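Suppose you are handed only these lines of text.
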Amino acid sequence: MPLPRAPGVARVRDARRLCIGASLLVLMLLASACANVPQTTVLPKTEAAREIQYLYVWIFWLAVIVFVGVQGALLYIMRRYQYREGQPLPEQVHGNTVLEIGWTIMPAVILVLMAVPTIRSIFLLETVPVASADGGTPMIVEVVGKQWWWEYHYPEYGIVTANEMVLPVGRTVILNLTSDNVIHSFWVPQLMGKMDVVPTHVNQIWFTPEEAGQYFGQCAEYCGIQHAQMRMNVVAMTPSDFQGWVTRQASPVPPPAGADPDTAALVAMGAEQFALNGCVGCHTVQAAVREEGKIGPNLSHVGSRTTIAAGILPNTHENMKHWLEDPQAIKPGNMMPNLHLRPQDVDALVAYLHSLK
Ligand code: CUA
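From them, the structure of the protein bound to dinuclear copper ion can be written out as follows.
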């Protein structure tokens, strides 16, 4: 038969549990505060994203008032009307007109307080600007959602690129979003809200980059097996750096400058393998010339991108090598088959692709 426990033991155990619980809570809060959160929604970096943040903060504080009011009233009532020994039955009421009108009007007032700024923001963000924030014309980027990567066309410059969108700081950009397969959603949280990317239809979204830097995003509409790996990033740079990028992208790919003879030979071999293995059937390697492969990402200047495979891997020698060795192992279900390339051809192809700056 178990021995009866002393009340002191239970109190010590409760205190210990409380301590562990409180420590875990503090640890969790600290961990969430320290985390590197490139896709955070609460550090907006454009006016369009700030507009959404204002709503978020406003509705948060309204919710805090509702929470404190409801929980406070609950605690007060629980304490005030708690059953006590020998207490007579309280007064029995059937309906209270003042209370009922009050709790019908209060939520309606709260909903109006939420709806008015929300509708204002919807209209503001839906109105595509005719002029750029810098006084010129907005830049258009045509975005096509693929399974599972993003293609960007810059009609003004005749540039086609993939996954990494380069933009100048200060100039408003309008994204014309469409898809050639299923519905996706384009979302770079620090720059703008989500927008659906729908086949046979163009949706528009706009923003003005304010700070140079790299901003990460994620497809936000379930679109198949690699939905979670359909990432994108926006690189905002100064207008002069952007002009330099445009000039490089719009130029034919130059031969690797200053490369030693061995590297140059490897690159030349890679170029040869690129043609021999039928890579050109799916990929273009020449900006502004589009009669080559259009199924896969345009690889002109792929060496200058920071990531590969739609933002999931840094664009390093090793990662590119693993991708070429077996794209299906890295991103199952994607359109690129395992070509069973010979190891020496993989090395040459990596050297060639990384020479495309
Ligand atoms: Cu594209 Cu999810």
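What can we learn from it? The longest strand covers residues 139-146. Residues 145, 148, 184, 219, 221-223, 227, 230 surround dinuclear copper ion (CB under 6 Å).
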